[in-house]
Amino acid sequence: MRIVAGDFGGRRLKAVPGMATRPTTDKVKEAMFNIIGPYFDGGRSLDLFAGSGGLSIEAVSRGIEHAVLIDRQYAAIKTIKDNVTVTKAADRFEILKRDARRAVTELAQRGDQFNLVFFDPPYAQQKIVQQMTQLRELGLLAPDARIVCETDQQADLPEAVPGFDFIEQRNYGITVLTIYALGA
After folding, report:
1. What digits encode the pLDDT tens for the residues 1-49?
2. What's 38's DSSP letter?
């Protein structure tokens, strides 16, 4: 696993030990960023199920100014910290060991807003549509926000989600990328 492109391109990243998380493959990550970017001019990203941190690190490498990474597993948080160290830009990352629901409440209380949000939850615990709605209702999404969802085939995310515009959906084997934009 590596950072595909940008300021940190080519640097190797660690995967979270064990079977509790599954890292996004470099192929899927590259395809994802070709759809949503591929490069950014600042902005903030949020990853509620950060795992190894690879998606947020890739986003910062490609121009996102600051990334907030959330995960509730100790092993994931340790791996994220190790991977952020590889960037030599730790000040551009905030790592929080929290349950996603609690983290969202805290971020809303702080008045944070995000231009890019990654949803890559454990496949058995996908509540993406409800979580997208919660982010919108709490004012956590900037007007230009993009939502990137990485799921398995069984998730079957709908095209029509109130408050969001469907952008695109692509299949990569067992992985499905679904991308939305905050609606007007």
Report:
1. 899 999 999 999 999 987 666 678 888 899 999 999 899 999 999 999 9
2. S
Cα separation, 95 vs 115, whole angstroms: 18
Instruction: Using a cut of 0.90, tell me whether the model's pTM lies above it.
Output: yes
Instruction: Classify 26-182 by CATH class.
Output: alpha beta
Tokens describing residue 42: 């600042």
Residues 74-91, buried b or exposed e (16+ Cβ, 10 A)?
A: eebbbbbeebbebbeeee
Question: Both tokens of residue 154?
Answer: 């069984």
- Please name the helix (run of DSSP H) or strand (run of DSSP E) that holds residue 147, with its range, or none: strand 141-152
Q: Give the domain ranges of the chain.
A: 26-182
Calpha distance 60→39 (Å, rounded) = 9
- Token pair for 152: 């398995």
